[in-house]
Design brief:
Blueprint: H1 11-29, H2 48-61, H3 66-76, H4 86-95, H5 97-110, E1 117-127, E2 143-147, E3 152-164, E4 169-172
Antiparallel strand pairs: 1-3, 2-3, 3-4
Helix pairs in contact: 1-2
Length: 173
């Protein structure tokens, strides 16, 4: 829990971040509302957009513990006791997994809320080295390269991939 103490100092900034994410989520959620088929939607204590915005804010702030994040939310954002209990919140997040994943992907496409992007490359071998001289299908397209991590030669392409700090693919070439 000690790694999260620096987030509790500026409550106004966190509420401003939550409001920005909430407006984005509520606008995007109307596009995928038909895919969220659930019973008893009229009986929920918190709307789906609130749950998704809270979950995304927790991921952006770097919380890895669901318990610590719920304690932080009830202590800083919903101090009047109007938020769900922890087990209900976690079940709702699991039920809304499709929507959360889709909205995180939309955030990644727009380039919002990313601190950094990691670039990595890996070989994509098309055939085994023993068959290199017999396979003529990719001749002139694929090249022979050396994969230093596996210490072997390969016949194929090299993939370069950019991944955001949230683990979403950003670009490849």
């Amino acid at each position: 829990m000690q790694e999260h103490f620096h987030f509790t100092t500026d409550r106004a900034k966190i509420q401003k971040q939550y409001a920005a994410i909430f407006f984005f989520v509520s606008a995007q959620l109307s596009l995928i509302q038909t895919h969220l088929q659930r019973r008893n939607r009229h009986l929920v204590k918190q709307e789906d957009s609130v749950i998704i915005a809270i979950h995304i804010l927790g991921k952006l702030l770097g919380f890895s513990s669901e318990r610590a994040w719920h304690r932080f939310v009830t202590g800083n954002l919903f101090t009047n006791g109007q938020f769900l209990e922890r087990s209900r919140y976690n079940r709702r997040c699991r039920a809304l997994h499709f929507a959360i994943k889709w909205i995180r992907h939309e955030l990644a496409k727009r380039g919002h809320h990313h601190a950094y992007v990691v670039v990595d490359s890996l070989p994509l071998p098309l055939c085994h080295a023993a068959r290199r001289h017999r396979v003529k299908r990719f001749q002139g397209i694929a090249d022979i390269g050396y994969g230093a991590s596996k210490k072997q030669w390969y016949d194929g392409w090299k993939l370069h991939l950019q991944v955001t700090d949230q683990g979403l693919p950003w670009d490849m070439w």
